[in-house]
Recover the amino acids of this structure.
């Protein structure tokens, strides 16, 4: 399995429009962050997790010529704002793109991309097949995907993370129940969001993310969904445990299937 970080930034990305802080002005390319997304490749299957406003740029940068599915963690714009650009894959693959989303998020998609679901759609609109994402394992080809339900900012506003074999990816979480943590345990590589150092009402901060990693004990951990308030990559990296790293755009790793 190969995993590539397509984007590792929070909803505004880094740099933030109009901001000239030390992070947004940093010459270090590791401080440039598109909206958070990953590409999972397994036995010629390509799965994208989240499809934000930077989707087109991410696909071009990483030369992703085909995809088999898109998984949506939740319905915020920075995670589904790029769905219109699946049109390119409709043309290449000559078929609709499979999109997995929770029922309420499907309704958001149908509203925001209503033109794609018209009875007589305009030629060239994105062709999407929506699949119900519930808190039960499912398969894409022969790859089992285990959803992990986490709180975003209230019990009614949750996100889905995903476990693929021994790899787990979670973003935009502020709390994970003990039962859901059991699904994560044993993962060799874990990615979790860490917005900034200070406390936040809807995202793990750095300390909370590190505490979760300490509890779950992965061989390797990565932090993502990072804002400019976190600080520069080089400086923050010096504060982290040996097996934990800040993710950065374009970073990839492979692991046994």
């Amino acid at each position: 399995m190969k995993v590539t970080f397509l984007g590792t930034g929070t909803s505004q990305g880094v740099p933030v429009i109009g901001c000239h802080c030390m992070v947004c002005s940093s010459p270090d390319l590791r401080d440039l962050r598109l909206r958070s997304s990953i590409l999972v490749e397994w036995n010629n299957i390509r799965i994208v997790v989240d499809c934000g406003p930077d989707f087109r740029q991410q696909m071009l940068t990483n030369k992703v010529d085909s995809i088999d599915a898109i998984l949506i963690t939740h319905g915020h714009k920075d995670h589904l704002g790029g769905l219109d650009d699946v049109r390119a894959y409709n043309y290449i693959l000559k078929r609709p793109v499979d999109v997995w989303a929770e029922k309420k998020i499907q309704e958001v998609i149908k509203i925001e991309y209503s033109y794609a679901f018209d009875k007589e759609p305009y030629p060239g609109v994105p062709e999407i097949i929506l699949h119900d994402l519930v808190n039960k394992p499912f398969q894409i080809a022969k790859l089992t995907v285990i959803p992990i339900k986490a709180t975003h900012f209230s019990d009614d506003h949750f996100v889905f993370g995903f476990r693929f074999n021994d790899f787990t990816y979670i973003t935009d979480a502020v709390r994970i129940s003990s039962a859901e943590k059991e699904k994560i345990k044993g993962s060799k590589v874990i990615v979790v969001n860490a917005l900034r150092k200070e406390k936040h009402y809807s995202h793990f901060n750095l300390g909370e993310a590190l505490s979760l990693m300490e509890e779950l004990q992965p061989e390797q951990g990565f932090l993502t969904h990072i804002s400019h308030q976190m600080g520069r990559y080089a400086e923050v990296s010096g504060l982290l445990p040996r097996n934990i790293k800040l993710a950065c755009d374009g970073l990839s790793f492979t692991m046994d299937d």
Helices lie at 55-61, 77-80, 87-93, 103-112, 178-184, 206-216, 233-237.
